[in-house]
């Protein structure tokens, strides 16, 4: 993969460079947000590793600009020395695909980068999925219901993409939290339920358009196809 690394600490930047070099990734190292914005005008990247604190902008500001200004669709791995849970949640809600705490563990960093690379390859394997009255496109990202595009946040889109990629399959809460938020283990949070509720409402996933997003008590969620003729 071709990876952009934005980190203002020279020692940390060199450490990340050596870790990624072990897997033969192409690394482009930067210390200022302005340099990243300039290079994005002419250079493609498969992944961004982004530090929370930068000299000319915060990592959250950089991420917001990428997601909304540049329509950046590639994964972002957020690295931070912040240990507060709300800081991590803020980063994930703002558009990070995964996060790591400093000090970084070389093996874990490489594993997270490989996982994000696999996830990107899987999502790009098919450019569109059609189910019922719905059409999900991956390039560019979007969901259309009965011919009308429905605006979704990055996290909402990732959830919908997972369900559309596995119709009829029961997806556990743990799996969804891990794949969409990067949270591993038995995490107690209402974030997933809030996002599911928003997705249901925005897309009308109540069976009226051929799909129903059903909750399975204390386990997870399943996207089910509904025969509209049976409802008439």
What would your notes on this structure say?
The protein has 232 residues and is an alpha/beta fold. It folds into two domains: 2-123, Response regulator (Rossmann fold), CATH 3.40.50.2300; 128-231, Arc Repressor Mutant, subunit A (Orthogonal Bundle). The chain has helices at 10-21, 33-40, 59-69, 85-94, 106-123, 154-165, 173-181, 191-203, 228-231; strands at residues 2-6, 26-30, 47-51, 76-80, 98-101, 128-131, 134-138, 141-145, 148-150, 170-172, 211-216, 220-225. The strands form three sheets. It has a five-stranded parallel sheet, sandwiched between helices. Strands 6-7-8-9 form a four-stranded antiparallel sheet, with helices on one face. The chain has a three-stranded antiparallel sheet with strand order 10-12-11. Helix 6 (154-165) packs across helix 8. The longest helix is centred in the middle third of the chain and has 18 residues, at 106-123. The chain starts with a strand and ends with a helix. The model has no long low-confidence stretch (mean pLDDT 85).
Number of strands: 12
**Helical segment tally?**
9
Which of globular, elongated, flat, extended, rod-shaped describes the shape?
globular
Number of domains: 2
Summed over residues and divided by their number, the pLDDT gives a mean of 85
Can you name the CATH architecture of the largest domain?
3-Layer(aba) Sandwich
Strand content: 15-25%
How many strands, which pairing sense, and closed or not: the largest β-sheet?
A: 5 strands, parallel
Stretches where pLDDT is under 50 for at least 5 consecutive residues are none
Q: Give the CATH superfamily of the largest domain.
A: Response regulator
Task: Indicate the radius of gyration in whole angstroms.
Answer: 19 Å
Task: Give me the side-by-side strand order of the main sheet.
Answer: 2-1-3-4-5
Q: What sequence of helices (H) and strands (E) makes up the elements?
A: EHEHEHEHEHEEEEHEHHEEH
CATH class (first level) name of the largest domain = Alpha Beta
Report how far apart the termini are: 50 Å
Question: In terms of structural class, how would the helical and strand content be classed?
Answer: alpha/beta
Helix content: 40-55%
Enter the CATH topology name of the largest domain. Answer: Rossmann fold
């Amino acid at each position: 993969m071709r990876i952009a690394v934005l980190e203002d600490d020279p020692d940390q930047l060199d450490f990340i460079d050596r870790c990624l070099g072990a897997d033969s990734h192409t690394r482009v190292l930067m210390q200022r947000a302005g340099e990243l914005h300039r290079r994005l005008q002419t250079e493609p990247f498969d992944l961004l590793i982004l530090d929370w604190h930068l000299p000319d902008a915060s990592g959250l500001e950089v991420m917001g600009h990428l997601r909304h200004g540049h329509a950046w669709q590639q994964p972002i791995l957020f690295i931070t020395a912040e240990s507060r849970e709300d800081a991590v949640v803020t980063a994930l809600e703002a558009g990070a695909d995964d996060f790591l705490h400093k000090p970084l563990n070389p093996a874990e960093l490489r594993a997270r980068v490989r996982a994000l690379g696999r996830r990107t390859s899987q999502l790009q394997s098919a450019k569109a999925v059609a189910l019922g009255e719905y059409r999900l496109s991956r390039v560019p990202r979007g969901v259309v219901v009965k011919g009308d595009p429905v605006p979704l946040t990055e996290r909402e889109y990732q959830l919908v993409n997972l369900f559309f990629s596995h119709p009829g399959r029961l997806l556990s809460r743990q799996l969804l939290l891990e794949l969409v938020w990067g949270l591993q283990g038995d995490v107690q949070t209402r974030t997933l339920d809030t996002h599911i509720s928003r997705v249901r409402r925005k897309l009308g996933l109540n069976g009226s358009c051929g799909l129903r997003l059903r909750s399975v008590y204390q386990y997870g969620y399943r996207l089910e196809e509904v025969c509209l003729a049976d409802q008439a």
